[in-house]
Amino acid sequence: MKKHIFNKTKWSIAALLLLSINSVFAQSSTSSALFESHDIGLFLLVLLVLLPIVGFFIYTGLSIKKKSTQLIQQKFSSQSIKAEKYLTDLDFEQVRALLGKKNNETHSLKSSGLLTVILLFISQFSFGQSDVLPATRESLMTQPGVLITLVLLFIPLLVGFILLVTKLNAMLTKMRTKNLMQEAETLAEMLDNGEVMQDYTELERREKALSYNLNNDELSGKEAPSDEKGLLKNVKSEHDMNFFAQKTKPMPRPKIDPNLTKLILAFIGSAIFWLVLGTSIGEYVGIKFIAPDADSLSWLSFGRLRPVHTNLVFWGWASLGMLGLGYYVVPMVGNGPLASLKMGWYSLFFINLSHILGTISLMAGVNNGGGEYREYIWPIMSLFAAGLVLSMINYLKTVALRKTKEIYISNWYITSAVIFLPIIAVVSYLPFWQNGIGETILQGFYMHQAVGLWFMFFCLGLLYYFLPQQLNKPIFSYSLGVLAFWTQILFYTLIGTHHFVFSSLPWWLQTVAIVGSVGMLIPVTSGTINFLMTFKGSWNKVSNSYSLPFFVVGVIYYFTGSFQGTAEAFRSTNLIWHFTDFTIAHSHITMYGIITFIIFAGIYAIVPRLTGQEPPQLMVGAHFWFALIGLQFYTIPLMIGGTFKGLSWAEGKPFIDSVVLMAPYWLWRAIGGSMMWISHLILAYNFYKMMFATKELDVKEEAFKILQQKVNLSQN
Amino acid sequence: MDFFNDHKKLFTAAVVLFSILMIFVAIFPAIENQTNNASLPDSQPLTDDEMAGKLIYISEGCVGCHSQQVRNVDMDKTWGSRPNIAADYAGITRTSFLQNTATLMGTERTGPDLTNIGVRQPSLDWHLLHLFNPRAVVQQSIMPAHPWLFDFKEKPNDGDIIVNVPAEFLQGKTGKVVASERVLQLVTYLQSLKQVKLPGGTPNPEFLYKKEKKAAEDGAGEAEDLDGAALYAANCQSCHQQNGEGLKGAFPPLKGSKIVLDENPEIMLSIIMQGYNAREEYGVMPAVGTNNKLIPEEITAIMNHERTSWGNTGRKVTTDEIKKLMEALKKPAQ
Fold it and tell me: What are the boundaries of the signal sequence (chain A) (predicted)?
């Protein structure tokens, strides 16, 4: 039987290999039709990306197969354990114990039918994956950009799948241990019965031979082990089968000034408020795609609420969230104090004021014109800019006050970002170069610099602090961070016009933007490598931390979202995707998948430290999964629908056809959006819990308090 | 390195690099384009009413869904006769003390492009009904309704423009729907959106990425190859509706229409090409054929679709017949 199973395994490997080889060949045979010869490089790239994936599937397939085979084997053989195998390998204690016992009892074994079913399903599953792979390649699309996007789309799904498989794998290992344990019990009972034992003389001889022994403590001494350096923490005393890992409490950090704590929490609290409000509006606006007659109030009409949503999540949520985290990071990495708390409060006040006024004015129909994210009129935007400038001065002074000689890379990014954004805003609001097409050139510049040199830059700075801190190890490469810093400034500044490809803007400017978009691959690749290599060797920490999973998602989307941006900038892909809902999916992948997830992570990393109160772990998990799954339901349908929309236009079909075909995708977007929105409500609840919730009594702390009181009393 | 440990030098370097690039890709091209481009000679500056309409267009956030740019790619041919050039926008200056210049080029096309809407859909009646509730004219539309741009009056004054809104879209409100001054201004603005001819024989810039034309297998079948239903949807349906029944009090039915079923297609063709305004109870029909530059083959396909759909049993016309009639139509106009 054993041999039979082994053979089966072998065949399955062969089948897997064949399938993968087959699919690889299938691609190369179609490649000549799909691509012209100049696209060979791209084909190789896709192949390079896919090969490790296929390899991974084969590996997991094999390992799961192996484990399940072992388990099945155990199950079948457990009723007739090969007692001889164990008997020849008994140690002294075992021999003696065996000799000492001669009782008779019967027993029965439990069988685990359910397990077999699960295992069979899993082994099926491992085949299923190899079937799925070619489906991605069979795509009829011939555009390199489309192919790149498909691959990118695949990456987060793949990572999610890897997580799942890893967990299943771990569970199987545990199950196997459990089964082995059962087997041991069976063996013990059989030995107990003596039903396998006929001749005891051989055993007795063995006992003598084995009784010669060293004391075993010649080298170690006789003292009990002790942890004198205090290295062991969070030692678990209970072991059970947890699918969800128990999260460890954050390590205590040096206490920071309680007044600074208040400022940071005020920033984060405001940010969360704008997030909930801004996404409630976003949610409502999304629903209007399916139910356009939901209301007939001018203040709640789609055209007016859309900019309210974008401005609140951009300048309200993300900007305040980042600034709040920045107020923690900037003094921390310089080992010095914050320059001015007062300035921080004023900054918060001005920014919040700008959003209150801005929201009202947009809903009343007062806006700046057609530019996206430039909808606040200048008096309101100047309040926002004033708040930013205050924080900028504050950060700069704090950097100047630092106690370390070097400026840690986080502060390069963060401080530069707060310097750049006011410049960008001022240049884009000044009227001197806004006539005619000048307005559009500035618009392209503005909307993209705000994204790349403010949000992305700031968040990279946060990553360079939080990742090493959370993983408790240095960043993989400081130099890569420096390279990414300069190249991001160099290339990102150029790419604004790629929002207006084929428009009346100068052709050379469009080309510069496309070239810059490709150049962005340099900082993005070096950043991603840096972060992933920092994770390397510490992946086990991800499962028992509640901030690290958010960081992992942020880093993955940093890679896929940015690469997608490059893929979208090509003229060929612009033909299909420009003006469609694909753009909206992309902006959510980047602003949500990257920026928002990193801020989520930062909040969960520092707020418990600042307040000393943990969020409910179940709710953090709920937040994470709702946000992540919601994002998938939001973006993937929009990308598919957007592609169909673009193709419908290209075929010259009546415009209304493209509206009708989008309906199901808009429905899915609303569903995904609702999930994301629910996750924000959970975040607000978690934040409340971290701020105000009654703290569970810490027995140790209380005991020492009582002790201290007693001491005080006795001293009096 | 000392350079990197001095915050003044480090951040100055970053800002200098950024600023140089910014001047190169934003400020310099912007200034160059605003000084070196002028409005086309044929273009008309916006009148006061049109400008007021544009302000409403801005205030209602129409640009979120409607672009105003015809790109130089083939698929944008639907939206205009030529790709837009920088000169088309050159006359647009700062909107007001509080508001920036608004070229309204847009980045999304959840709704149709409006660069040439004044030519494509000049009908006031259509725009008013459409703005009151888009679903009254285009059933599948998802555009927001704008009822706050209208007044409800029990007894309209003389000179009030009454919009014949089907009862289901009144949402229980009583009285006549009267177009406010604001909505009339908005429609005036929309009607003013027309592409201007390039001056004196300047050739139009080319549309790129042309669809490869499938070689016609036989010349005779050309008219049948065109999809009459799709052309009808693109050019006629927003008023006459998909079921050909039009809208009561606004747009006449084509189903069972005498003109459509007439053995002689001459009147039908002249209405398509030159428009029609003879009947009190209905809105004005614009010169759709001329405005949208339909070719005889397309007109034939549309006419045949109208003559044989919704239970209509008119005679099919041929392309040659239509070509001759079209030439005849042109002569008296000259």
Answer: 1-26
